[in-house]
Amino acid sequence: MSEVSTLTPQERHAIEIAAREVIAYRESLADADVPPELRPDAFAPRIPAVLAEEGAPPDEVIADLVADVGPGLGGLSSPRFFGYVLGSSMPVGIAADMLVSGWGQNVGSSWETPGVFVMERTVCKWCVDMLGLPAESAVGIVTGATVANTQGIMAARNALLRRQGWDVEDKGLFGAPEFPVLIGADAHSAPFAGLRYAGLGAGRAIRVATDDQGRIRPEAMAEALAGIDAPPLVVLQAGQINTGAFDRFAELIPMIHAKGGWVHVDGAFGLWLAAVPELAPRLAGVAEADSWAVDLHKWLNAPFDAGLCIVRDRAALIASMSARGAYLPTTLDAVEPTDTTLELSRRARGVPSYAILRALGQSGVRALIARHCALADRLAARLAAEPGIRILSEIASNQVSVAIGEGEEGDRLTRAVLARVQARGRVYPSHGEWRGRDIIRCSIIGYAMTTAEIDLLGDEIIAAARAERDRAA
Ligand SMILES: *Cc1c(COP(=O)(O)O)cnc(C)c1O
What we know:
Elements: H1 9-28, H2 40-43, H3 58-69, H4 91-103, H5 114-131, E1 138-142, H6 145-162, H7 168-171, E2 181-184, H8 189-197, E3 206-208, H9 218-226, E4 233-237, H10 249-258, E5 262-266, E6 291-295, E7 307-311, H11 314-321, H12 351-384, E8 389-391, E9 399-404, H13 407-424, E10 430-434, E11 437-443, H14 451-472
Parallel strand pairs: 2-3, 2-4, 4-5, 5-6
Antiparallel strand pairs: 1-7, 6-7, 8-9, 9-11, 10-11
Bound molecules: pyridoxal-5'-phosphate (PLP).
């Protein structure tokens, strides 16, 4: 400790309390129930409704914060949390994220923050390499796949309109030539949000019919393409949230390119299968697309929030993202991080992924993805063997959709079984709907999930289904 310090003893103490709490919290996940102890109504009274006139010492604030928030923390990082599609913040990434906060780098400028700038640039390169995407792509490190999809759509908008002689960055969309947007009927809500944010309209998009796995039907795509004039933006999907399935890129992308179209792929979680040689054939041809959205905080288990927007046409991404306006970089080599994201000021949110990738190595990444896919097969096989339980799709990656019974009565049973499992709190799958059925959706994506957690999930669902059936009988 030097004699002069920018930290007071209480500030130092505050940071130490936080570091100790992070360790204690993560260790508590081993056997804690997954749902939060208190819901908002019970939890809110613990927090002062009116800000006190006087401040408080930093270490006291942090100690109070730890005590007050505790009962309101949900076990999203638990290896027994199977809801939605969430990663669970790998500890090495958490450690790096704490450093990112401590360093306080605004990574907008390579000149002023070269350390984190180079680390982030490296993360982008490593990910593009592992995913087998074009090395020349421009990459933006964003908060997640919603923004990554939006940015990819904005880059497409720039390029498709430029090819029609219209500079959308300068002239905007009023009076612009039109281009059609095509998207699969079972796309995630995120690209629809991206279409709205980009001024292209969610309702205006042509929804292309899908098969029973949620994959676009190639003949429906061919028909849709035959009916349009201008080169379209087409949004494809790598990883459907209910089935984990992939659009047939090798068949679809050449059709779309033959029309002069731009293909954007929402690959929030599923794109990671491209990093695993034995699984990559499931998304063969995906690298032929023009832009991709992929999360770091899902399958890579980076702490929230981080994702990548990857665009083959560097100029299109930079032209649509750069906040420099008239000062657009004259060479594409002089690109700064702010030129590839919507943000101007930005934390170095790529650095935790640098640490995670270093810790896993390429073999570790491949093993993580492959293990989760194998665990999804195991869970599906186990549940399908139980009378009255159905798995609603083939298992294409890590998502398992479960329905109990048949018809309306089956939907009621499914909801009751899910409520029972969630209330017990040992494991936590979430609700969904698929092909007119209420479902229990299980996402196998947390870095610490093993056969033990998967078998417990199977046990819990089966026990709840039997209990509900007995109750009904
Ligand atoms: C999660 C998800 C998104 C949205 O990603 P965020 O990181 O939550 O913004 C988009 N598409 C798919 C397929 C997803 O699973």
